[in-house]
Amino acid sequence: MTLVSEKTEVRQDHATPPVHDPARRFRLRLNLRGLVFAVALVLVLEALTRWYIRSSYVPRPSQVFAALYAELLRGDMLHDAGQTLATFATGLLIATVAAVASGVVLGSSPRIFGAFKLIIEFLRPLPSVALIPFGILILGVGSATGVAMTAYAAFWPILFNTYYGVRDADPVAVDTARNFGLGRAAVLRRVLLPSAATNIAAGIRVSAAIALVLAITVEIITSSGGLGYYIVRMQTATRTAEMYGGVFAVGLLGYVINLVVAALERKVVFWKTDVRDGGAK
Amino acid sequence: MTARVSSLGRRLLPLVLPLVLLLAWEYLGRTLGNVYLPPLSSVLRTLRDDWFFDHTVADLIPSLERFATGYVVGSVIGIALGIAIGSSRRVAQYLEPTLEFLRALPAVAIIPVAVLAFGLGSSMRIAVIVFGVLFPVLVNTTVGARSCRQERIDVARMYGLSRMQIIRRVVLPSALPMISTGLRVALPIALIMMVVSELVGGQNGIGFYLLTGQSLFNISGMFAALFILGILGNLVNAGYARLERKWLFWANNV
After folding, report:
1. B16–A contact, CB cutoff 8 A
2. In 3D, which of A166, A151, A167, A160 has the Cα closest to residue A197?
3. Interface check A34 vs B, CB under 8 A
4. Are the C-beta atoms of B59 and B119 separated by less than 8 Å?
5. Three-class SS of residue A104?
6. What is the pTM of this model?
7. CA distance B154 to A213
8. Which tens digits make up the pLDDT trace of A187-218?
9. Using N-to-C axis directions, what is the helix angle for A61-74 and A32-51, rounded to 10°?
10. Which of A5, A269, B71, B80 shows the smallest number of beta carbons within 10 Å?
11. CA A64 and chain centroid, separation
């Protein structure tokens, strides 16, 4: 019996997974074995730090969780998390609007793309964090720098995905729509954007991860509040349990953002067959 | 005739806008007199004075050393663990949520932890790069190893290959395209971690040069550093793409 079920499971791995059953996917995510391992890992770390590694630099997991709980109860950390989330969301939103608009323009005309090609290709591989010192000088230490840097870094993946999506739209579909008398705006709304939607969604998913990295980085470097600054503050005070608690909170934030973005993606572009693409970050 | 002109125009078109922008930069830099926008010529002068070759030796080479060390160490660990995890379906199931969580953790968040553990030296910066590279490579390798068809493994087993032989001859080759994807995704991350780890303070490195430029209000120097980083990013990406085409030409999904 077990042999049979094992075999069918292996088979399903190669076939395209059923997408219209979110419940099943959810169950896959919350697999029991994964949970067992995570709990076991925490217990082993607890045992190690309790009996073998006795250093104030390596707090016990129980201390970390206790610290996290206490900080959450006091509300300071929730405030910090809210600030990080606000920077992240504002930056990602600005990036999405700007990148989809630019991507549509670039994708619908090879000439325009040609004109911008060199600039885009030079700017894209430039590590976005190198702009943070400029941001600090020009925009000062505050949320403006965080939002600007987040938006800049999140811009590129969405831009490229939109560009390829629009460029590779089926020309027959575009011509058919034109034949039926649709104007430019209508073709854009009814043909180009829907056919680029899966690409755009994938771009937003990649950008969401990058946006969080930039939001946290700016907070760490400029000490301007948020979870990033919380971790730095706890580090300088050598309150290591709180520091690890902050790192855990950032991880949790990243994980939840991933889940939410993936769920939105499945909902909005429900016709896409494969939601995961090798974990591009 | 017109065809030839338009094809020439198409070839020159990409150069027009960058040239216009660079000229506008020079012009505005001279006329506005804004401290934040030094003319291009002064940026290029700084680039020549600083980066040929004083700061290349003092800052760029230490940066690149840490980048290379961190990238290689992170990749090797990621590939080894990924193959180990991915070649057993059960192990993968146990580890998946934990790995997903660690991958979702923005690597920059561990910088304060690394500072506490390693101080402000090179080892902290390398550790941060390793952490940033490790998870994308690990997760992609795991997915690649799991994508190996069970039939192939069964055939190899039937021919009497040992577990190690199966991993080396069957699992690893079929995971290579995904491993390569992971390595490609990890490159810009390594570059970002290199710069960030130097921005939090230190003794040398291109990020440190940027930081010094910021505190001395040396805007030309900061722009020069951006040029260097842009060129570096382009070289690294293009170099990897070339290697990938050369060695993985048989994998059509690259």
Report:
1. yes
2. A166
3. yes
4. no
5. helix
6. 0.85
7. 42
8. 888 888 888 898 999 999 999 999 999 999 99
9. 110
10. A5
11. 25
Neighbouring C-beta atoms of residue B11, cutoff 10 Å? 10
B-chain CB neighbours of A14 within 8 Å are: 149
The vertex-A270 CA angle with A100 and B175, nearest 5°, equals: 85
Give the DSSP H or E segment for A184.
helix A184-187
With CB atoms and an 8 Å threshold, state whether A34 touches B96: yes
How many CB atoms sit inside 10 A of residue A232's CB?
Answer: 20
Q: How far is the C-alpha of B58 from the C-alpha of A24, rounded, in Å?
A: 56
- Scanning every residue of chain A, which has its alpha carbon at the shortest distance from the alpha carbon of B196? A129
Q: Is the ipTM of this complex over 0.95?
A: no
Residues 12-31, chain A, touching B (beta carbon < 8 A): 13-14, 29-31
- Residues with Cβ within 8 Å of residue A206, at least 6 apart in sequence: A157, A161, A280, A281
Tokens of A58: 């390596």
Whole-angstrom distance, CA of residue A225 vs CA of residue A231: 10
